[in-house]
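[09:14] KT: can someone run the structure on this one? pasting the chain below
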Amino acid sequence: MSFKIVDQAPARLNRSELAVPGSNPTFLEKASQSSADVVFLDLEDAVAVAEKPATRAMVVEALKQNPGKRGYIRVNAWDTDFCFNDILAVMGPWLTGIVLPKVEEAAQVIAVDWIMAQIEKDKGMEVGSVDLLPILETGKGIANARAIAGAVTRVRRLSFGAGDYTKDMSMRWTLAETEIDHARAEVVLASRAEGLEPPVDSVWIHIKDTDGLVRSAEKVRDMGFQGKLCIHPDQIGPTNGVFTPTEEQVAFAEKVVAAFDEAEAQGLASIQLDGYFIDYPIVDQARRTLDQWKSIQNR
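[09:31] RB: done, structure tokens below
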């Protein structure tokens, strides 16, 4: 059974996904108050190896204490000694989704999807109710993006990780980020070609550089991403702002749709409006803007 979404307008946007170290009780408590669309509690990079097993119970308890929050848990990568037991420990009705890092092959998401389904059955949960978000962050992962996106699993969207990708590729991660344009484009193209939602982009590691964050977010928004990973609460507001249509954009989209609906009723398939040429692709984009706005307002 496939859980793919073929409409480009997500039912619920992931504009901002805040990563929180799972082993830090203070951060876990503060995360519940954040304005991020999604909070994901980390068992991977932010947790020391010796602390990983004990941290599983901490992140589960944090999610149980905040049942209204969209809570994801990033488990350790498939090829580690921790991944399987991470999934066993954290799966439950308190969990919105699992973030699977360093995905390199379709077989990995297929296997994790199967494991999740068995746990859901054992716990009396609806199969497919827990989301699965793969992060592509190696050369092999980007090279296999189409196969990963096309695997028949519960995966709704992909994510891109620039830090590990540039390390894996021996690249210098610059402020301009032009060296990762090709990888980002590949993730967007694979997502669209295989009927997934628009993907979620990498973190911006320069926490004090808000202007740089905004430029990066605007760039990937225009490339076709729906949101961005965040590593500090101060990044949430600017990120949400970039991926939220402005009131002017919403007003114009409403005007476009209304004018075109009226023209279409008269047998016209293209019109001019305020100096703009309007046809079906432009109207579809306007409807998408309105769908995004509705999704945000219904959070």
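[09:33] KT: thanks! The CA atoms of residues 232 and 263 lie 47 Å apart.
[09:34] RB: yep, looked fine to me
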